[in-house]
Amino acid sequence: MTRNMLAPLAALVGALALVPAPAAAAASAVLLKNGVVHTEGARGTIEGGSVLIEAGRVTAVGRDLVAPAGAEVIDLKGRPVTPALFGGIGQLGVSEIELEASTNDGTLKLGQMRPEFDLSLAFNPDSVPVAVARVEGVGFALLSPGAEPGRKGAPGSSIIAGLASVVRLDGRRPRAPVALAVSAGEEAGPLAGESRAAAYMLLAQALEEARGPAPLAAGELRLLTPAGRRVLKSFVTEQKPVLFAVDRAADIRAAVEFAQRERLKAVVSGGAEAWRVASLLARAQVPVVLDPLDDLPEQFDQIGATLENAARLHAAGVAIVFSRRSPAPHDERKLRQAAGNAVAHGLPWDAALAALTSEPARVFRAAAEFGSIEAGRPANLVVWSGDPLEVSTVVDASWLDGHRQSLRTRQTELRDRYLARVRAGTAR
Amino acid sequence: MPRSFIRAAERLVALVAGAGLAATLAAAAPATPPSDPYPSTYAPAAAAPVLIRGATVLTGGGARLEDSDVLVADGKIAAVGPHLEAPAGARIVEAKGRWVTPGIIDVHSHLGVYPSPQVSGNSDGNEATAPVTANVWAEHSVWPVDPGFDTALAGGITTLEILPGSANLIGGRSVVLKNVPAVTYQAMKFPGAAQGLKMACGENPKRVYGAGRNVAPSTRMGNVAGYRAQWIEAQEYLRDLATYDAKIKAGGKAAEDAKPPKRDLRLETLAGVLRGEIPVQMHCYRADEMAIMLDMAREFGFRIAAFHHAVEAYKIADLLAERGVCAAMWADWWGFKMEANDGIQENIALVDAAPNSCAIVHSDSEEGIQRLNQEAGKALARGRAVGLEIPPERAIRWLTQNPARALGIDGRTGTLEPGKMADVVVWNRNPFSVYALADEVYIDGVLQYDRAHPPALPRSDFMLGQPAAAGVVP
User: Which residues of A fall within a CB distance of 8 Å from B390?
Assistant: First the structure.
């Protein structure tokens, strides 16, 4: 490509910069018309559909909607609209640069079992990775604490990593904690005296303390603080989801049976071999959070990993939610590509989109806000240039809580600075 | 879900704990090393000719041919064009609506040296016991059983460079492999492909040695001083060799008394670089550091074939093109450490836009290597979004011709040209789609992967007899 071929870019880049998408633009009425609206709600997919946004909420969805006076009307020309996507389980907003300890708050390493650890208090809505994920159509994610053994004599975390919360990528505060992160498979070994079996022993003890009507006698070994007992008990009484990090089929079975015994609402996280116990998961109504790209025995727990995991679980009637295995906050934008790969390996397209929208919203108790485009719900939605699961597709516009979102980030600023230099032949 | 952040190689570097310096490897031996002591034993099986008919063909050299045929015979590309004649006994592949490309080449892989499963017993990618280990060869760590070779094959990977990790300033020699099933790595070794030298800029060496062990380097200036000291030693070694050779040539008493310098694996590698026999494959993220490395290459007169990772290559796209240095990049992996903080999704497209550029999409990942085609698809889309219209026939070069060039094998593979190795992928659709799957993968004309007819048993010995992999439901 010659420099001459690049010359027309000047005009184009100039034009892009003029697209009116100010940060959190005022929420006036907007009618999106003539799109393919994937409502992920009772209305299903509406070809030639419209969405009316008023005062931050979706007020109507359907064909032939009429714009109220003064509303901005945007002709989508057949482009798809979806609910804002789920970014997966990870550490978006609490980790700026993973290898720089000073910028990471995601893992509690007190060497104590602290189910009351509320990571959402560290959430930084201005974190650059938050905006980078947002401009790729991600609207919400599950912020969940990490688990890590201590090193060189320093304390590590515990098999209960702490509380997980749904975070919103538009600058608002996270929702109240909704889930509890628990290690039970390979990850649990180093946190439980080098045996994953002990994870259940410790969990059972903690639950007994939490349920116990009377505090333990003085001098008795206890795992939890009073606050920890209250928090853990709430997961039993309120049936909030407990995320069990397990991959091996036998561990998934053990976790599900443990949860049934203890009357916990289990969610499998990881689940590389979940397809092997699909009927158990379907019967017990346990959802699986999985990475569709898992297909190697990266650990001995994942020998049965296959690209068909999602398709097989879905066919068996198991609810699936997508997440990358790595919690890297910089990688959440890759999740829709992973979903596309699940489709390439047998998952129906609609189920893949649901695993990125309505299913995570339902499983993590955020369905009143995220996961569907329905009248009365806050407007959290994305207009795509094409198939949202396709790698060639980009976000054309997005609204979170009814506010049109800026598509600019630190990365687009860098791009534009150097694009101009490449064009001028002075990129050095 | 295991909560690890960093790709395998990087992760290891982050965790390396203190250890003593390695003893210097040296042995009394002749000055002239055997030229090829661990030779390739790879010989493709005989295979019937193959005629792929009616496909959209991306040649890898920049051309796109519609409704075209590719004829393979004797392991080589025999012809590319419309309406080719099928030789007797040829396997006919009807490929109407499908796409054909050269085999995909990954210039940056740790398959075999950081294999799956990722256990300590198999962790052989970083000789992180001293900051300079030019004496080690990655090929001596390759575990051919790694199941990652199989999953990469399903992604169309026919050739890959296996590198030592990036813990060290100078990590050791790389090896180029053909992605064929084998019991020994020698039976995968790309015949005649030069080894490379893995070097690393930036954070990793200073983290592992300075911060990890209080051993130099602990700073970027320490890094550069460390490389330069090695080149100075290599120059001296070459002088000693030249002196010895001159004495031998002179004959008589001088020749009788001549004593060759002691064999030294480290100096043999470094001398090979200075002689131009071993290209440098340089792990480097930041633009400013790449510019320093280019100056250093000039100072000592060696060639850097490619900067790997090159997250900031877009900032010096013209400089890289002018010096004829390739940049091997990710489509969108960034931010996991400070030197990766300026990653942008347009990096590949911007590097590609410079005249005479050499942009490459690489993986450094057992997951990424399975779908380099999709990574290129993302980079294409990001280019298009800012007005850099890149047609598929150009973008495929990022995965074929350009990596072949960086590895010095572009005369033999990387394009579908008569006489080249028949490394060919038949895709079920446009390969830059997320839904694209390789239907067939040929290596030297041999059908190594056939999506429609999966083998009854896994190729990797490790996967044999594993109930979980065999689909046994507990």
Answer: 1
Q: What is the ipTM of this complex?
A: 0.93
The tens place of each residue's pLDDT in chain B, 474 residues long, gives 433 444 444 544 444 433 333 333 333 344 556 789 999 999 999 999 999 999 999 999 999 999 999 999 999 999 999 999 999 999 999 999 999 999 999 999 999 999 999 999 999 999 999 999 999 999 999 999 999 999 999 999 999 999 999 999 999 999 999 999 999 999 999 999 999 999 999 999 999 999 889 899 999 999 999 999 999 999 999 999 999 999 999 999 999 999 999 999 999 999 999 999 999 999 999 999 999 999 999 999 999 999 999 999 999 999 999 999 999 999 999 999 999 999 999 999 999 999 999 999 999 999 999 999 999 999 999 999 999 999 999 999 999 999 999 999 999 999 999 999 999 999 999 999 999 999 999 999 999 999 999 998 999 999 999 989 887 777
Contact B118 A8 (CB under 8 A): no
Q: To the nearest whole angstrom, how far is the Cα of B52 from the nearest Cα of chain A?
A: 23
Report the gap between the CA of B336 and the closest CA in chain A (Å).
Answer: 5
| Spatial distance between the Cα atoms of B377 and B434, rounded to a whole number of angstroms | 8
Indicate yes or no: CB of B1 within 8 angstroms of CB of A273. no
- pTM for the structure as a whole: 0.94
A105 contacts A96 by C-beta, under 8 angstroms: no
- If one looks up domain B44-103+415-474 in CATH, what number appears? 2.30.40.10
> Got the DSSP string for B249-290?
HH-HHHHHH--PPPP-HHHHHHHHHHTTSS-EEEEE--HHHH
Question: What's the fold here for domain B104-413?
Answer: TIM Barrel (3.20.20)
* Strand A403-404 versus strand B50-58 pairing type: unpaired
Four-way CATH pick for A85-370: 1.20.1300.10, 3.20.20.140, 1.10.760.10, 3.100.10.10: 3.20.20.140
Nearest chain A alpha carbon to B150: A296
Distance from the B430 Cα atom to the nearest Cα atom in chain A, whole angstroms: 11
Task: Among B1, B148, B473, select the one facing A325 at the smallest CB separation.
Answer: B1
- Domain ranges for chain A: 20-82+394-406, 85-370
Q: Taking CB atoms and an 8 Å cutoff, what residues of chain A touch B346?
A: 415, 419
* Cβ <8 Å between A333 and B332: yes
Cα B440 to Cα B447: distance, rounded to the nearest angstrom: 7
User: Degrees (nearest 5) of the Cα angle B207, B211, B212?
Assistant: 85
Q: Which residues contact A350 (CB under 8 A, 6 or more apart)?
A: A45
